[in-house]
Amino acid sequence: MEKRDYYEVLGVSKSASAEEIKKAYRKKAIEFHPDKNPGDKVAEENFKEAAEAYEVLSDPQKRQRYDQFGHAGMGNNGGFGGGSSMNMDDIFSHFGDIFGGHFGGSFGGFSGFGGGGSRGQRVRRGSDLRVKVKLTLAEIATGVEKKIKVNKYVTCSHCDGSGARDSHSTKTCDTCHGSGYVTQVQRTILGQMQTQSVCPTCGGEGKIVADKCTHCSGEGVVRAEEIITIKIPAGVAQGMQLSMQGKGNAARRGGVNGDLLIVIEEEKHPELIRDENDLIYNLLLSLPTAILGGTVEIPTVDGKVKVKIDKGTQPGKVLRLRNKGLPDVNRYGTGDLLVNIGVYIPETLSSDEKKVIEKLDESSNFKPTATATKNFFSHFKQMFG
Asked: At 361, is the secondary structure helix, strand, or coil?
């Protein structure tokens, strides 16, 4: 199923401000909240879809990538993790402030997804990782699957990320009694004021590790190398950033993994120049070929093609090979290959060659015509405005 436009999902225009986007998301989240629509799978999917849209449009960098490249820029093509894989823990972890409470907490008068109307335990999030991937024009033209080795924090396999030596090595925090938050009551001139803050003893986790795992020293994560397969869609560009959700660093003692951000770098082609989705090739013809015509080979991203050169071809002429450029990353078509023609003029001549040229110069065919002169000046006028 094709993804809907994120602006359409939230019901805002592309020029909407950050505050308008936030308000629109809150409205959608309240409408489709699981507590308000128990057992309604459609509402749950709409709830996740709105969260996915807000995750992108509330982040200036992600929004800029989305505006430029669409869903492909967010990695929703070719196996990249998009918001469709977000679960409820992810949503409440990322957007707890929108829900009027902390992760899994109360939301707009509803009890909260599994929160029972009170603030839930704090959910940690692992940090994002950024890697650079170099691609040739041929790989960009077709899309490519690459395997990369990443050194990162992964969940400790001995304690399953809990940080404890065994299942009996954790206990409920005595300070917050497992809630992850402490409540303070202060007397003011307006009466008693109640505030909540993260528990200083357990850091919001609601539990204490009494006997730490010896393999991860109680952190729940260890350093390790992981081979990750990434599928890059066709048409990506230099500097474009794709993301794989949950492939970044693991969070300490459970929580939500960070993302893996893939930055695209283009390798320079020895003959072709990229101009957005078009490719440019500068062809230098010999003087006889320009005059008499002939056939030449032109490089493309998928091999060489033969192109006919008409007799009397002028320098500055541009040949356009349709659909021989690069595909649009949003699948809006394919660019062209533009062949800029130049003519090589010999710098030195033998005496015999000089006599031939001098003889040709006497012919009227080698004198610029009025039409040729007009076209020449018109061409330069367009170039320099």
From this structure: helix
Q: What is the pLDDT of residue 114?
A: 39
Q: What are phi and psi of 199, to 5 degrees?
A: -60, 125
Confidence of residue 109 (pLDDT cuts 50, 70, 90): very low
Average pLDDT over residues 84-108: 48
Query: What is the extent of the structural domain holding 282?
Result: 273-383
Eight-class DSSP state of 71: G
Check pLDDT > 60 for residue 78.
Answer: no
Cα-flanking dihedrals φ and ψ of residue 90, to 5°?
Answer: -60, -45
| φ, ψ for residue 312, nearest 5 deg | 75, 25
CA distance 190 to 340: 79
Per the domain annotation, does 371 fall within a domain?
yes
Task: Return the closest-CA partner of residue 255 out of 289, 221, 227, 284.
Answer: 221
Cα–Cα distance, 306 to 323 (Å, whole number): 15
Single-letter code of the amino acid located at 50 = A
Helix, strand, coil % (nearest 5) of the chain?
Answer: 25, 30, 45
Residue 117 has what pLDDT? Answer: 39
Is 245 within 8 Å of 228 (Cβ atoms)? no
Is residue 76 pLDDT above 60, yes or no? no
Q: In 104-180, at which residue ranges do the beta strands (DSSP E only) sit?
A: 129-135, 144-155, 170-172
Q: Domain end: 54, 88, 123, which one?
A: 123
Nearest alpha carbon to residue 315 among 349, 342, 347: 342
- Residue 85 or 246, more confident: 246
The DSSP 8-state label assigned to residue 212 in this structure reads: B
**What is the CATH number for 74?**
1.10.287.110
Distances (CA, A) of 299 to 137, 138, 351: 12, 12, 36
What would the pLDDT profile of 184-243 be if each residue is shown by its tens digit? 887 777 667 777 788 888 877 778 888 889 888 888 889 999 999 999 999 998 888 888
Query: Which among 87, 104, 123 is the end of a domain?
Result: 123
